[in-house]
Amino acid sequence: MASSTGITKRTVVVRTRAALRDALAAAPRPLGVVPTMGWLHAGHRSLMQRSRAADATTVVTIFVNPRQFGDPRDLEQYPRNEARDVAICEEEGVDLVFAPSVEEVYPLGFDTSIRVGAIAEPLEGTARPGHFDGVATVVAVLFNLVGAEHAYFGQKDAQQVLVVRQMARDLAIRTEVIACPTVREGDGLALSSRNVHLAPEERAAAPVLHRALTAARDAWAAGERSGDALRSRMREVLAGEPLANPDYVSVADLATLRELDRIDGPALLSLAVRLGSTRLIDNEPLP
Amino acid sequence: MASSTGITKRTVVVRTRAALRDALAAAPRPLGVVPTMGWLHAGHRSLMQRSRAADATTVVTIFVNPRQFGDPRDLEQYPRNEARDVAICEEEGVDLVFAPSVEEVYPLGFDTSIRVGAIAEPLEGTARPGHFDGVATVVAVLFNLVGAEHAYFGQKDAQQVLVVRQMARDLAIRTEVIACPTVREGDGLALSSRNVHLAPEERAAAPVLHRALTAARDAWAAGERSGDALRSRMREVLAGEPLANPDYVSVADLATLRELDRIDGPALLSLAVRLGSTRLIDNEPLP
Fold this sequence. Notes:
Two copies of one chain form a homodimer.
Chain A: E1 12-14, H1 17-25, E2 31-36, H2 42-54, E3 57-62, H3 72-77, H4 82-91, E4 96-98, H5 102-105, E5 112-116, H6 124-127, H7 131-146, E6 150-154, H8 158-170, E7 176-180, H9 200-205, H10 208-221, H11 227-239, E8 244-253, E9 267-275, E10 278-286
Parallel strand pairs in A: 1-4, 2-3, 2-6, 3-4, 6-7
Antiparallel strand pairs in A: 8-9, 9-10
Helix pairs in contact in A: 7-8, 10-11
């Protein structure tokens, strides 16, 4: 369905499992899916572009998944604007948008949950109990419904990528999980749907996350291999921004997310910081 | 691959995920799968026959799943004879046997589990903690690997059928779960791989399970609608057999497995009984 003639076809929006299956029955393969919670931004656009380059059909799912929110207020306040989202999908040449209701994803009597083990425990798993169970469960449902060859996720949610990849591999779901680089504003702030909640002074302070990561990366590039030293470096930079309230800073093994004393292989620098009532995360893989 | 010419083709045995996918790539559809733990008996044969009648290709999986055994001794003692099992599959015209190792189903680093909620809690769920997590997880893996249109399970494991059906429906796995009638010996004993463990005097006592169910069914047919009365009727019959050590007797809603005070819709009579060290289960749906 992806046009190679320069003529943009209209993006089709479906809302039910049945309509999705009908729409995909004759879709050219390979199929790529970009699972989102809507409020699409340039980060999501980069995932769609990646799929458009690799896949004959691109599907975007838009679903704010209640099961991955621990805090009901966080769920309620999550930004939504489907019309704008669909327009963005259209601009990007997306073939199909699946925008189901909560009842369509979790029909009456839904009572199954998927838990991924060790990789889901530290960092966001500790900060947001139950979050990754909700992520793993909804992604399994979406993967099984869409049946794509490829799924594209942003590296900004690095642990989510690892959790989803583990789930799909373990359960023999034939969708390959592809992580794509984080897209940033000019001042380094990683794009996130949550950025819309930042008050102007918080938005001005928000690049401190990326500055902290960059400082630690620079120290690593200069030869520092101590986990504690790199964590301290990040905390120092965060301490310089009065509005930033750090949740965690981490220097962990890139595959297992276990905290490292010494870095002698691929690692992940990551952090979570509150700015007012908005919680932001960011990360930087090493090397 | 199923022969309609009367010529029996040789059953192909594969042991790896990759070999399974290769073998199924060009298999005529629809595809039916009979998931088993081996030590095949006439109950399994009836499932294969059901698939052979409905499906163009029939796959039998043989895998003793460690994750659904709470007791390591029970796992160790579970009877195994693959050569005999494959011969039975061949007799039944099965196209493909998938007999993977534990490491093939659960590769190094496997760390995902599936939990089904309320339907998995009573009866066998209470008696065997973790059992249905193991069942739901391995069946999800097998369903995703095989990708069959139909899966056949014995009604003898009534709760297992409900758990697997709920898991597949919730996770949008496109394999329909079909329950097939329990196959019994002439004296009423439900066929089970575990029957091989019964000492002669235990084997002689074992039809008491079916007699208890039949007595309760007869009382129901005569108009008894009290759950307590029917449970008592089962216990009375079991009490008449000195070797029988009842684990539970149940009169439950057929859809939810919640215990019933009064029967005013479809119900399930079920029980679990120990004979020596062997634990047997059986059930009878009403009406």
